[in-house]
Amino acid sequence: MGAYHIQGFARKVQESAPRGHFIEVSFDKKQQPSGEFTLYRSRDEKHVATVKAETLPGCCGVIVLHHLLLFGNNGEDALVNLIEAAAIGAQKAKYGLAVLTLLSNSTLIPELEHRGWNKSTTFLNGKTNNLVTVLHKILVQAVRPVIKRTETGGE
Length: 155
Description:
By secondary structure, the protein is α+β, with helices and mostly antiparallel strands. It has helices spanning 2-15, 76-92, 108-114, and strands at 22-27, 34-40, 47-55, 62-70, 97-103, 118-125, 130-138. It contains three helices and seven strands.
């Protein structure tokens, strides 16, 4: 799936831009499949937020969002909107799960939880000594197959 899948995902993210905003996509040719999404208030203005996304190696159904950045005096809602656009785009591109990490004291966590993100776990990053929270959002609900039983009780 690789590069084609992430490019299809990129188109879906662009289509999911918040009203009055534009999302630009750039790809890292060395690290396909991955992309960076930059949110603009309009095509003429400076960027307000960026997020990088890549398919989890070994599982094409999981999108990992990372390197979340907010620029200037833009409110955190811009970053939340970009994260949500990425999640909606991932869902439309048939990803089943989105994952991201934030510092545990991030003020984004309550807003993301309000929008359907769940805390998976919290851990201490031994490299930085930061307390980190892993969040996930289920994009496609699993459906269990119905197994019909015969009159004798077998399958």
